[in-house]
Amino acid sequence: MTSEALLSARGLRVVIDGLHILHGVDLDVAPTGVTALLGRNGAGKTTTVKAVMGLVPRTGDIRFAGRDVGRLPTHAVVRQGIGYAPEDRGVFAGLTVAENLRLAERDADPAYPFVYELFPELRSRGRQLAGTLSGGQQQMLAIGRTLLNANRLIVADEPTKGLAPKIVAEVADVLARVAERVPVLLVEQNLALVRRVAGTCTVLADGRTAHQGDAAELLADEEAARRLLGVGGGHPVAASSIATAAPAVAAASAATATATATKEAP
Amino acid sequence: MSTVTSSTPPTPAVPSPSPPSSATGAPARTARIALLRWWPLALFGVLAVLPYGTVRVPGLLDGPVGSPGSLQLLALCLVFGGLATSYDLLLGRTGLLSFGHALYFAAGLYFTDLAMLEWRLPLASAALVGIGGAAVLSVLLGAVSLRVTGIGFAMVTLAFAQAGAILVQRNPGGVTGGEEGRAAPSDLLPGSLIGIENTPNLYWIALAYLALTLAVVHWTSSSPTGRVWAGIRENERRVEVLGLRPYGFKLVALAVAGTLAGVGGVVYLLLTGGATPQAAGSDTTLSLLVMVVLGGSGTRWGPVLGGVLYTWAAHRLGDLANSSAIADLPGVLRVPLSQPLFLLGSLFVGVVYLLPGGLAKLSSRWRPIRGGLTA
Amino acid sequence: MATVVLLACTGLGLGALYFLIASGLSLIFGLMDVLNLAHGALLSVGAYATWWGAAQAGLNYWLALAFGTAFGTVAAVVLELVLIRPLYTRPRDQILATVGVGLAVPALLMGIWGGDARPFPQPESLAGTVHIAGAAVPVNRFVLIGAAALVLVALRLFLARTRYGLIVRAGVEDRAMVTALGVDVRKAFTLVFAIGGAAAALGGGLAALYFGSVNPGQGANLLIFAFVVVVMGGMGSVAGAAAAAVAVGLVQQFANYYTADGLGDLAVVALLAVLVLARPRELTGRLA
Ligand SMILES: Nc1ncnc2c1ncn2[C@@H]1O[C@H](COP(=O)(O)OP(=O)(O)O)[C@@H](O)[C@H]1O
Ligand SMILES: [Mg+2]
Questions:
Q1: Which atom of ligand 1 is nearest to A157's Cα?
Q2: Which residues of B fall within a CB distance of 8 Å from A17?
Q3: Which fold has domain C2-278?
Q4: Cα(A85) to centroid of ligand 2, in Å?
Q5: Do B97 and C92 touch (CB under 8 A)?
Q6: DSSP letter at A44?
Q7: Which residue has its alpha carbon closest to ligand 1 atom 12?
Q8: Does A86 contact ligand 1 (Cβ within 6 A)?
């Protein structure tokens, strides 16, 4: 797996203001499909992603498509072909939707048709200030920005966080479609969504890599899932029971996502 | 002894009897450790007897160390060493970038002077008025300016300090004396503090002030409050997470530092015999900032070192500028060399660039080498 | 009435000066988090370069002003490239470096041209007065107001219509996110410094006209009121800076005239204190 990984990090460490946040994270992102980055709250998922992007001071080895990107500044990392949708969505509230998109343009001919096809609302609301969008619309904008350019990897940090169940299902659909074109590194708490889209996964605990392997296998192993992710009940792992430890909204959204998945299954 | 003085202000009078006792062995090492521990006391002891010194240090000081002129300059150096130390309580210990510290220095200076001039109070009572005024002012203005954080705080403190400087300069009701300032009334000052033959007394007061600020800053920073200050400096959010409100702790830091600056104002008044508006100007605050950064912010001795060096350099460079050696130089060299502030400003930029952590950092870099040599 | 008109025009003229300094400060701070204490030095550089052009090199006022502005722009770019950029990862040291420059540059000017004010030759065409509602208002007030208005419009167009303007507006909101879109913000930094330096140097050349003289401390004095304007207007906001500059200029003039001289300056600071107490949150504003 290591040899063919699109993105691989070894011994990633992050210290912020004297606080040791990551103590050695190993991460491999598969060259196709969705790789999930999992772990409890505060495990260091967001920090790992930021370290890859060069948004926090980091040490360790980071290779992307065969190139050492561990010492590049953020903009140079991005220009290697990485689209990043951060945890708080990173939408510029004081800019219009169209301006948010325009700012993200790097290629000579940005893929507006594809973005507008996925998210028709981004076109119709082009002149609206992004700060006045709903959470779901802002998330669409954040993902849309990553799709404008011919990226080789999309990094999405908890794209379903705080969204209504119906919107979660829409985001899940989009991620599934995107993953057909571009590999995705997905940070996600919603395990039903992970089960639906992810192939491989990396699990973090306390700033370290605790597990790497097949996502479905991990989620099927009740004991491992509980130990690594703090979830799972006394029943065989099913979508509903996976979600029981998560907040109510997540539980509901998990159910919806599963429902969508079932509906779409041939 | 020689190993010790290199990390402290240059004390020209020290006869530096570098002991060639390369005696190795346990007793010698214990003695060295004891010396390292107690060197500040030894240093203050040496500083205390400087007025009796007859040594000449050509280049560093004009007359003998104990002469009134030299003592006056040394005393000024000590006062600014103390002021810089009080300023570093904000900058280095709490992480507050205040541009208003000169205001409290000027408050101590002017309130004391005016209490004597206008209310005919004796020096001791006037000094209490001055210090109390500085303390109250620092709490009041601190309470307002701390409502904004970060750079906003820096700008608001600068605006307040500037308001003070304008107030002093505009001479409201003829009280502050405007550009000229006002001389302290000699009839209200004790005889032992007036006259050139009493310069040693003033020098000792300045030395006592430096010791006081060092003690207060050391004591408060190692208190529980001081540990919260350190937390605020490192990461304010983390302090909030612990359930503490940084606002109150920062206000205490401002009050302590402001009061110490007020005391410095009183000492400065005695030393210079009057209050002048330069004390309130923004250049004074910026100079304090330069001193602290030059010496080493957040260290115990760095601000003292910076304050002493800066004050000494500003005076000596001023003398140099007026000397014939400079006047005869070609313009390209004469112009920059005749401007102490140009040289100091450039030196400061250089230090910021090449020596983050200031001169104190330099000494800690040398320490292992020294240790290796003397062990 | 005549007095009121004269005071208003003078206050607006002063506000125009404040705006020219504050707009650049505000953008630099908003985008880069750099409190540029050398901004007053840039104004002084512009003022002396304009004075040199007009008094020494014999240029007419407009050419001298263009020369002074260009000189200040170059100085600002050099400052950014040589001093600010290498300290990019040390924000506090960036501020400290500008403190050093803010001390050194006026001292250098003093070393070259002396500490006393140098009279600025008033151009014939701008020496007269305009009569409005019975008040004889010096023409130079309108030059200042006009220049500031032009700069305001130009800045708004730059921010609204150009890609770099977009980058600046976004960067004021969230600089890290701009880099995370693959934008190299350092170019925008240099550009913003150049714009700020140009505005400040232009302000210096106009201040020379307004005060009728240049002196090394001019920049530092104006800088402090510009800080007040920046804080009041919301850091990073050009429109906010414009509104605050007008308010500060007017309050200062009227209070100085109708109360004691000097009280106007204090009134401005009091206004700032009230604002800080009333709405501390909003003082770290957005670009508008
Ligand atoms: N800038 C920061 N300052 C201090 N602590 C931080 C900072 N960023 C993250 N942390 C801490 O590091 C840990 C990991 O955070 P994060 O990477 O956001 O976790 P996750 O995304 O897995 O929930 C948390 O305990 C968090 O509080
Ligand atoms: Mg996270």
A1: 21
A2: 234-235, 238
A3: ABC transporter involved in vitamin B12 uptake, BtuC (1.10.3470)
A4: 12
A5: yes
A6: S
A7: A21
A8: no
Question: Which residue's CA is the closest to the ligand 1 atom numbered 9?
Answer: A47
Residue B327: what pLDDT? 74
DSSP 8-class letter at A125: T
φ and ψ of C144, to 5 deg: -60, -50
Interface mutation target, options C181, C183, C235, C286, chain A, most CBs of A under 10 Å: C181
Which residues from chain A sit within 8 angstroms of residue B234, using beta carbons?
Answer: 17-18
The pLDDT of residue B178: 84
Q: Where are the domains of chain A?
A: 7-264
Digit-coded pLDDT (tens) for B261-299: 999 999 999 999 999 988 888 788 889 999 999 999 989
Neighbouring chains of A at 3+ CB pairs under 8 Å are B, C
| Residue pair C27/C169 in contact by the 8 Å Cβ criterion | no
Whole-angstrom distance, CA of residue A94 vs CA of residue A129: 6
Mean pLDDT estimate for chain B: 83
- Tell me what pLDDT residue B32 has: 66
Q: pLDDT value at position B29?
A: 66
A7-264: which CATH number, 1.10.1040.10, 3.40.50.11690, 3.40.50.300, 3.10.20.310?
Answer: 3.40.50.300
Over residues A78-118, the pLDDT tens digits come to 999 999 999 999 999 999 999 999 999 998 899 999 999 99
The confidence band for B333, taking pLDDT boundaries of 50, 70 and 90, is confident
Query: Residue B5 pLDDT more than 80?
Result: no
Q: Which residues of A3-20 are buried (b: 16+ CB within 10 A; e: fewer)?
A: eebbbbbbebbbeeeeee
Does ligand 1 come within 6 angstroms of the Cβ of A161? no
Q: Report helix angle C163-173 to C185-211, nearest 10.
A: 100
B64-72 own/partner pairs: CB under 8 Å, 24+ apart: B65/B12, B65/B13, B66/B200, B68/B196, B68/B197, B68/B199, B71/B199, B71/B200, B71/B202, B71/B203, B72/B199, B72/B202, B72/B203, B72/B271
In this predicted model, which residue has the larger pLDDT, B209 or C92? B209
Query: B138: closest CA among B199, B215, B86?
Result: B86
The pLDDT, as a whole number, for residue B17 is 41
**B235 contacts chain A (CB < 8 A):** yes
Which ligand neighbours the alpha carbon of B236 most closely? 1
State the smallest CA–CA distance between residue C204 and chain A in angstroms. Answer: 32
* Domain spans in chain C, listed from the N-terminal domain onward: 2-278
Which one of B232, B235, B236 makes the best mutation probe of the A interface by having the most chain A beta carbons within 10 Å? Answer: B235
Query: Which pTM value belongs to this model?
Result: 0.82
- The percent of residues above 70 in pLDDT, for chain A, comes to 85
How sure is the predictor about B127, in pLDDT bands with cuts at 50, 70 and 90? very high
pLDDT of residue C150: 96
State in Å: Cα C108 to ligand 2 middle: 52
Q: Is B98 helix (H, G, I), strand (E, B) or coil?
A: coil
